Structures are given as C-alpha cells and as structure tokens.
Amino acid sequence: MASLSLSFTSPRLLCAFHHAHAQAPHSSPVSGGGFSFYVGSKVSGFRRFYSGSQRDALRLFAVHASLFAFLKKDRQVLKQELLDAIAPLDRGAAASAEELFRVDKIARELEAVNPNKEPLKSVLLNGKWELLYTTSSTILKKQWPKVLRPGGSIFQAINADTLRAQNLETWPYFNQVTANLTPLSGRKVAVKFDNFKIGSLISIKAPDSAGGELEITYLDNDLRVSRGNRGNLFVLKMVDPTYRVPA
Question: For the whole model, what pTM was predicted?
Fold first, then answer.
C-alpha cells in the first residue's frame, strides 16, 4: 500500500532501498525483499513514499525523475537557451520558419517565469536596451537587399518614470523616433510617436496615427522580452541603465 504526504524538501531526488523486512509508514511489512523510496523536489513540494515490487518502484522513480528534471529548468537555463537560439539569426533576419517557432516557444517558457509581473513599476525597465532579436520586418527591413539593411546596433530606451521611449538606429541610417507612453496595465503601454529624426539631423513631427501598443512580458536586470500589438516579438539586452530619453 502506498502512502502520500506533502512536504517541501531540498531540490534533489532521494532514493532509499530497504531489503528484507522493509516497512512503509502506515502499511504492512513487505516480504520477499521489499523496496521503498521517496522522491522530493523543491519545485513541486511533493514527496512520495512507495513500497512494492522493485520493477514498479523503478518505473515510478523514472517517471518522477523525468518530471522533476523538466520542472527544475530555471530562468537562467531558459535565458541561455533563448540567447543561444537567437545568436546565429542576424537579429531575426536570417530565421527560418522552424527557427522562428523555436525562439517563440523558448520565449514563452521564459515569460512564464517572469520575476517582475508589473515591469512598469520596476526600476529595471529604465535605460537603453540593445535589440538582439525581433520578428518585425519593418525594423529588420527584410524586404530590402542585405547590403541596405541596418548594419549597426539598434536600441530602444524606456524611462518609466517620465513615460518616454525612444528607438535609435545606428549605422548606416542613424534614424530616431521618440514617443509618449500611456500605461494600460502594469506591463502594457500604448505608444504614441511624437517626433521622427532622419539621419539624426532632420526632425519631422509624427502623424497622429503613428503608434501602437507594447507589452513587457519578461524583465530582469539584463534581459527584456516584449510583444507588440501586431504580434511581433522583441528580445533586448540592457546596455545603459542611466540613459535618459529626451523630453
């Protein structure tokens, strides 16, 4: 007979073997070389004490071990998986359909363990972020010949305290756009562009229709994942937490 108890234990798998007259709590002794073990995991807080045949016990142990190995995948592992997946993709411009799907899957796993549920209230959001990956064809200019696409770094800056944002291209175009933000929730903002700067020289007032929405779906001290209202995914790394967006 199996008995079930709930407790929080250290994050490891524990296995105890008891031969001959092994006895589980609240159960009858097992004859013929009994076998018992319990499995503990900090992730699930689950402990199981099992007594029975060795074959059944090993089968149960294997199932639990596989489950706990999956559940124990933490944020740092997921972050590295995401960074490794996007590294060869030229910010997304070189991504195949299969690679787009894989990156989105990893991003969603990371979003599920977001440590900052209301990023607009976090100081970690403030500063200049470098774009590592996006599915936005407008930003990547995928329809252009490769030689004409942005070659330098692309940045996005956000100051949550002033509700200002700025997108900045570097080589070869050096275009910029600033925007006002209106919070829609603790993680989502409406974006209203107010000024475009062409080649860092020519300023043009943005039309009233220029804008959209941005949802910050993952945030920590050096990585941010966001999604736009058109379904685009953005992955960025922090480069300058002191940067201030022009008023």
Answer: 0.71
